[in-house]
Amino acid sequence: MASTESKSGSSENFHTQEPSRVAQPGARWGPQHAGARELAELYSPGKRGQEWLSVLLCFTLMAFNFCYLVTYFHLGHIWYILLGIVAGILTADFASGLVHWGADTWGSVDLPIVGKAFIRPFREHHIDPTAITRHDFIETNGDNCMLTIIPLANMAANFLMLSPAEIYRSYPWYCYVFALAIFVTLTNQIHKWSHTYFGLPRWVTFLQDCYIILPRKHHRVHHVSPHETYFCITTGWLNYPLEKLGFWRNLEDLIQSLTGEKPRSDDLRWAQKTK
């Protein structure tokens, strides 16, 4: 078991043992929390089907595009390729923060379509942070795969329809889009690894220790209630500068002043459920 200290000295535990099957109605967090059990039960067969389809389409398109990128590779592009990859990773990290912040902070599980399908996992995660470690590959990565299907399909269409000269000119852009798609696709898998404290492959812990992907200690900061900072969960590179700029806080203040909506009100409602 590992734990993290909050600024006030309180700690929040992170463990990956199998949850007890005995109900604990008064649990403050974890799989026996009343809200966590209710949210887990909202995972539907239809949602599962959407995730399977998204994973299959995403990885098929990714393999197709990778073959064309290898075919059109030229050493003259090498520096542009490296720049495109770094830019793609940074864009993915910011996008992960924007989506994470939006789903954590606004909206409700009761919203039509998006509520149960996409906001529900974020509510569950705050009151049962280790639930993600018990999700299989499809449930973990299905939604992120869905996000990349359109850009990957557009890239594939370009490879089929454009001339070699046109592809050559746009090659660095395709490298950027492909790197962005890979890291967006893997974001929730990386997030899952940041909550897994036992049994990770050595290459994963190496990437975490090198800050190439989100480190476990770094992500603990977000899980100190009220979960209002460090939203970027791909690499975490942008968390510190965005926090120093007060980016999320200022954005919340602006939205609250315009709409009157209180940040994280639905998140707090689920956290306070007792039955």
Automatic annotation (TrEMBL):
Region described as Disordered: spans on this chain: 1-30
GO MF terms held by the record: oxidoreductase activity
Membrane topology: Multi-pass membrane protein
Cellular component, GO annotation: membrane
Domain Lipid desaturase intervals: 89-266
InterPro entries on file: Lipid_desat, Plasmalogen_desaturase
Protein name per the record: Lipid desaturase domain-containing protein
Organism: Phoxinus phoxinus (Eurasian minnow)
